[in-house]
Specification:
By secondary structure, the chain is an alpha+beta fold. 36% of the residues lie in helices and 20% in strands.
Amino acid sequence: MTDLIHALKAIVGAANVLTQDSDRAAYEVDATHTYKGHARAVVRPASTQEVSEVVRLANATKTPVIPQSGNTGLAGGCFAGDSGDQIILSLSRMNTIREIRPDSRIAIVQAGVVLAKLHEAVAQHDLIFPLTFGAQGSAMIGGNLATNAGGSNVLRYGNTRDLVLGIEAVLANGDIVDLMSELHKDNTGFNLNHLLVGSEGALGIITGAVLKLAPRPKAYFTAMVAVPGISSSLGLLNTLREATNNAVEAFEYMPALYFDMLQERFPETRMPFDTPAEHGIFLEVGLTAPDDVTALPDGTLPAVNRLETLLMDLLEDGQILDAVVCKSEGQRREMWTRRERAFETTVARGMPVNNDISVAVDKVEAFLTLMDTRLPAVFPKAQSMTVSHLGDGNLHYSVWTDPDTRAAVGHEDYDRVLEIVEDTVLELGGSFSAEHGIGVTKLGSMKRRKNKPALAAMWAIKSALDPNNILNPGKVLPPQ
């Protein structure tokens, strides 16, 4: 053990090998405080070459390596375990934005760049990196790629995998794979980018990436809309998409219970409607066409006027029940804050059984209706709450089996809830994992539900690339 620590210090410097309990503590517990492990050391390399040397050493000594970026994951993907023989490899020092090329609309970055910092940097070029979610102030690009993160703008721009042109990664033997392509078309063999993105560090450690940027909208149309029901809101979504040439960026579902919980956790929060809405939709349209955003003599924007009229017509027809349209950037940020506080709001009532699932958008209401029957049949006191990226069918479905006690759900009950959810999701042709990754939390689901030949193929790939099973062992794939 001492020899290993000395060798690590020789690679990254003594100050960047953390061995004291107090120094390691923040790296050893996850964002939900569900998983707290014990690592031999936290190693903080500053370059891809240093990552390569650390991993090569780990492979030679068969030392497990847990890659970690911002440590904001919700599935235990950075859990170090309890054995104390693993090292956490933190990419936090690799935080350089190497290049922003506005004409090509690409950014070349290291894996430790914080997502919000990238947002700020590209905004100076009137561009956006269109990945956004509540943890963007601390989440890092490496973790975003490792989990193929989703967020609120998937509807228009796609998941993280869709925003990547190239990556750089270190394999289990220490070899550096340079896939930093800046090309939109490159059919030279298997797409290793797509294999490594979403692999949660189990196949390789992503150290850099070439990312796609998009033009920053010249204006936004942002609103909170009360709708009669979830299914009826899909008509609103499709109407907006047709009226804006598919420029709807966010279409988020928030029920009345969420707003109650939000105000309970953050009393200063102003509610969007005078009369609480049973079903609320937070929507945003990004406007880029010059004809849409050139101000009229009265200072208003043509597209905003058209969309306000559209909402008024829908209100008169009874297709929506109420609407509040943002008139300033301050109001827009206020609406986004309501949505981005979902995690803090949810856990304030005690840690629930978190389900990150997806179904076809026209089956969301069917899922919730079935769960309203099936969950109480097993847990009579159970309470559920859903916040959803409704536009792409991704639901964050939280369950408290006994909300009166606010106690953590026991292991047996936790698995029982997951099985009820899985049964219902798969019955509807959905997925038990949408955007948070598998990590540790969903290993049971993978074992129960994933196609067996698919699991065997995944294990074959893992064994070929990481024969000593040192890269994030015990994550993503259940034991064979």
